[in-house]
Structures are given as C-alpha cells and as structure tokens.
Amino acid sequence: MVKLEVIATCVEDALLAEECGADRLELITAITEGGLTPSIGMIQQVVDAVQIPVNVMVRPHSRSFVYGQHDIATMAVDIEEIAKVGAAGIVIGALTADGDIDVALLDQLLPLAGKMDVTFHRAFDELDNRPAGLETLMSYPQISRVLTSGGLKPAPQAVAEIQQLVGITRDRGRGFLSNSARTRENTFQILAGHGLTIEGIEAFIAATGVTEVHFGSAVRLDSSALAPIDPVRLKALATKIHSIG
C-alpha cells in the first residue's frame, strides 16, 4: 500500500491528519521557510497525542543546507532530545560547501539517532548528481528514505527523474534483501513531495512507481501553507492513495 506522509505544524494538525488517514507525520515549524526544528514541548505533545509515526525535522536555520560547528552541535542536542520524547524518526539533510552530501556530518549525527527512522530531506534536490547522491545515502542503514521532487522543479514536472531514482532503489533493494535482515517493506524508499496534487496523484504514482508521498499545503484550506488542514481534501487524498494496490 502507498503511504501518505503529511506535514504537521501543531497538535491540532497532527490529530486531524491522523483522523483523516495520514500514515505518518513530518513535524516541523516555520513551514514557509521549508521547515525548521519544532520545540521539544511541541514534539512531546504531538508524540503523546497520536498513534501514527512522528518524524521530526532537524534543521537549525533556513539560510542554507551547509552547517558549521555550532549548527552541528545544535542539531546533535536536538536529536538526543527528540529521541528522549519518543519520536519515531528524524528528518535531516546537509550539504558541503561544494554541493555534495555532507557525509562527515551524517557520520557524526546519525549514531545519536539510535533506533529512530531517518529521512534525508530535500537538500537532496540541490545535488548536481542525484543518482550518485542516492547511492551515498543508501550506504547508511539508518537512512530509510529521501524526500525529493526529483530536482528543483515540482515533482509532477520531474516524473522521469523520480522514476530513475525509484529504479535505483529497487535494484539496490534486491541486494539488501539477499545480504541483510531487511525485508521488502523496509528497503530504501523514495518519498515524493513538492507540488503534488490530489487530482493528479494516482497518475503520478502510476508513472513513477513511488510507494510514499508527502503533502503539505495541498491538503490545507485554500492550499495555503499557513492555513489549517482541510479534512475534506485530506480524506479524499487518503482514500485515493490507500486504494492503490
């Protein structure tokens, strides 16, 4: 079954998203800045309020995806605190000044996540060579997925690019299945997001082969990022997605 991840920015969002059929939450603050780390109080309240997994954004500022030592120290403390309150996972991403994935940062911070699920966020879309970047991310057993629109364009305009990324994960997934204890359900996933629409989601999934999709403003009133979740729109979306075999 295709999974639906929905952005939540408060407890009310989280409760409504769960009620209307979301399979997982991405909990953030500063939605108009692409998402920053919410307060520990907010994280605790949301984790306590819902039964579905809560993945928390770990992003200290929106200036860039290049982080210095003080940023990394901040992210380390955030990850440790997020783990303590029982979140299911974190959403993280970092690039070097040269525009590559910051593997040194990942090597430093991922051990702090313990058993939490890890998503690499849309910093990935700024890479010049996304297939190579995907191979790098797939070498980390803790990272379960990458959130991507296939580049800097909205996802519906990058169907071929996303299809290529899905193909890479499936080819590598067969290797994971034969060489580790992973199962088909938890091999590396492409989580498609940015610009997806309720009306076009079925065709998009069929064309790309993705099994996870990410929605934010498209399931809010008037498609406004700062508006509450629209239960009618979200229920309609969840029904469509969960009917796909």
Automatic annotation (TrEMBL):
SUPFAM superfamilies: CutC-like (SSF110395). Signal peptide: none annotated. Its main location: cytoplasm. Keywords: Cytoplasm. It is found in: Cytoplasm. Gene3D superfamilies: Copper homeostasis (CutC) domain (3.20.20.380). This is PF03932 family protein CutC. The lineage of its organism: Bacteria, Bacillati, Bacillota, Bacilli, Bacillales.
